[in-house]
Design a protein that fits this description.
alpha/beta
């Protein structure tokens, strides 16, 4: 290999937030945000023939894309000065209009902490997940809504885009219990945005029942989504984040946050499958945090209290109020109203958890650069850590 090519290869680092080479000049273009990055290669690398250098660069990019087919539009540069001209929205990028030159992604101002960050929320098409999606968009972010229910994810994205007058969300289909499905989802994201800033592992299921009666099938169903699903999502999200973060030269950190539960902090009567899986996610959180810190990835858990107004609890056919009533989990309860009153009475702040409470916790974790491997209770005081 020619010494010039060797030098060029050394500058072609990993994925940087979706930049792809246009094949005609020394300009990388961001697929979603519309930013242009003009590559300022040192004279010692460029040599006397700039046109020939561009051809070499083009061939290297093509080779990299061919051998790493998952990232055909996500080639970045490492340790190379670049200038940015960033479109402030997806629509500006599509129309080819660009506005101001911002500083490096991120902000020290709390009100701006989520602005222009790219997030993904699994289980985001309905219920608690949909509330998290809405909250992150309200904070100024762009969100991929990932769900088994692709139609529901697309519908929610359409509603949010219409409401804001710009493209702030896109729907994706995913089964978090399937490695193939999660990998395909992350590849799709890589082609659009070159990875993400925040992964919220929210997808979850629950089947309550006595340990003496619950079927192994139901137990494994809960575990495959709530526990194994978090492992699979972290596996593929961290691969892309690690590449992206190397490209930032250590200046930027990304976040993986699992939505655990207060049942991950204390046992839950006749609800062992769910509580066991949520306890397990906290063990994974701590272990992943120790490993991925070297990749500039923080891993934390949010442990909400009971979301009493959501479908998980309030669905008239499959909700927890109905399940717990049938399972006689609440002594003396004659109706779902009795079950609800019982759970509200356990909370010092006398109400169930709301999605706005969890979104605040997520924003705090992203803002806080000095914590990883933590399980943050959001329980209204129902669970207090020692």
């Amino acid at each position: 290999m020619d010494s010039t090519i060797k030098k060029l290869v050394s500058f072609l680092g990993p994925v940087i937030r979706g930049y792809f080479y246009d094949g005609e000049s020394s300009v990388f273009v961001h697929a979603i945000e519309g930013s242009q990055a003009e590559v300022m290669l040192p004279e010692s690398v460029i040599g006397d023939d700039a046109a020939e250098t561009v051809k070499i660069l083009d061939s290297i990019v093509a080779g990299y894309a061919g051998s790493n087919g998952r990232y055909p539009k996500s080639i970045g540069v490492q340790n190379v000065p670049v200038t940015f001209n960033l479109g402030m929205s997806y629509d500006e990028a599509v129309s080819g209009t660009f506005s101001r030159e911002p500083s490096f992604i991120g902000s020290s101002r709390r009100s701006d902490i989520m602005k222009r960050k790219i997030s993904i929320v699994t289980g985001g098409a309905q219920g608690f997940g949909a509330g998290i999606v809405q909250g992150l968009i309200d904070e100024g972010g762009f969100v991929f809504i990932a769900d088994m229910n692709k139609e529901g994810a697309d519908s929610l994205a359409s509603q949010l885009n219409e409401k804001t007058g710009s493209t702030v969300a896109l729907g994706l289909k995913v089964d978090v219990s399937s490695e193939e499905s999660v990998e395909q989802m992350m590849d799709e994201i890589a082609a659009l945005t070159g990875s993400i800033d925040l992964f919220v592992s929210n997808a979850g299921v629950l089947k309550a029942g006595s340990v003496k009666e619950i079927s192994l099938r139901d137990f494994e169903f809960v575990t495959s989504v709530d526990y194994t699903g978090f492992f699979i999502c972290t596996k593929f999200a961290s691969r892309q984040m690690a590449l992206q973060n190397i490209g930032s030269g250590g200046r930027y950190m990304t976040d993986i946050i699992t939505i655990s539960s207060k049942s991950g902090l204390e046992g839950s009567n006749k609800n062992g499958a769910y509580a066991g899986a949520k306890f397990g996610t906290i063990g994974l959180t701590q272990s992943f945090a120790l490993e991925l810190v070297s990749d500039n990835i923080k891993v934390n858990a949010v442990c909400p209290g009971n979301f009493l107004d959501g479908p998980l609890w309030s669905d008239p056919d499959r909700g927890l109020f109905v399940q717990y009533l049938r399972a006689n989990k609440v002594p003396g309860a004659k109706s779902v109203e009795d079950v609800r009153a019982f759970y509200e009475s356990k909370v010092p702040l006398s109400r169930g958890c709301k999605t706005t409470d969890v979104v605040r916790a997520i924003c705090y974790i992203v803002e806080q650069k000095y914590e990883t491997g933590q399980a943050l209770p959001v329980t209204g005081g129902q669970v207090m850590l020692n």
